[in-house]
DNA sequence: GTAGTTGCAAAGTGTTTGCAGGCAG
DNA sequence: CTGCCTGCAAACACTTTGCAACTAC
């Protein structure tokens, strides 16, 4: 998928979300935006240090949490013990390939969900995650 | 919710799923079925040892994995680093309360999802998880 | 006697934290 | 100087593993 932002636009994107654009944060945002893929913290750490080791693990985690809090990216939780980060903050769904661990988007505009019961009063919806888990058809199910 | 099985039925349920019913496995199944709630491994460990410590952590984890493999229960993944186990294996969806960590069922029969794109050939759907994340309306979002 | 099950505790993975140094205003 | 940002490494929570004793048949 085409990058959502050009690299030089990233500082402004961060500012627009109330995030001071530092070198490390720009690198992390660029890693996500240049690929528009779902990346784990581990993958992002590897990517930003690909050319030169300049960002620590702690900073990657801190920054990703900051991005999530500021709604710059979205957490996608498909399996316990590893969080993926999705640079596409718009509502959409996910297809998770159980054999490969590959995670792809399902555009929200093609999908409609109806019949969800009304929320109890005093609650508001933060988001609806739809995860379609698929497997190779020939794999014996277990 | 009413228990799905009576305690004395549990050994047969296990056998029907190809699981040798041992004391610990029956306890763990009973903990799930008597409550029909979403429990974490930690909660199950506490429940089965409530009266007397007779089941180890390893056995709880091993048994839960076995139950999942045998389709007796379902894993529900709502946050990284903690897996919930759902004694209801039928298709249904979940409401996750972000403030309390409380997880409740949404019956599948009231919800319809349409417009999911066709699967690429050679894949089969293992399941569709819908997680509605809610929060107290007055809580400032962060 | 054999095969399967359990328990303990240590190892493992992914994530979070505490504190000191660095840079900007 | 003050405050935010960063890095290191230890701490942390949850889960998995290895091995020996135990149980049932």
Describe this structure in words.
- 2 copies of one chain form a homodimer.
- Chain A is of the alpha+beta class and 142 residues long.
- In chain A, the strands form 2 sheets. A 3-stranded antiparallel sheet of chain A has the order 1-3-2. A 3-stranded mixed sheet of chain A has the order 5-4-7, with no helix packed on it.
- In chain A, strand 4 and strand 5 form a beta hairpin.
- In chain A, helix 2 crosses helix 3 and helix 3 packs across helix 4.
- Chain A starts with 9 loop residues before the first helix and ends in a 6-residue tail after the last strand.
- In chain A, 25% of the residues are buried.
- The mean pLDDT of chain A is 88.
- At the A-B interface, strand 2, strand 6 and strand 7 of A face strand 2, strand 6 and strand 7 of B.
- Chain A binds a DNA duplex (25 and 25 nucleotides) through helix 4.
Compose a concise summary of this entry.
Chain A has helices at 10-16, 23-35, 41-48, 57-69; strands spanning 39-40, 74-79, 82-86, 92-97, 102-107, 112-114, 123-136.
Name its key features.
30% strand; DNA-binding; three-stranded antiparallel sheet; 4 helices; alpha+beta; three-stranded mixed sheet; 142 residues; homodimer
Reconstruct the topology from this structure.
2 copies of one chain form a homodimer.
Chain A: H1 10-16, H2 23-35, E1 39-40, H3 41-48, H4 57-69, E2 74-79, E3 82-86, E4 92-97, E5 102-107, E6 112-114, E7 123-136
Parallel strand pairs in A: 4-7
Antiparallel strand pairs in A: 1-3, 2-3, 4-5
Chain A binds a DNA duplex (25 and 25 nucleotides) through helix 4.
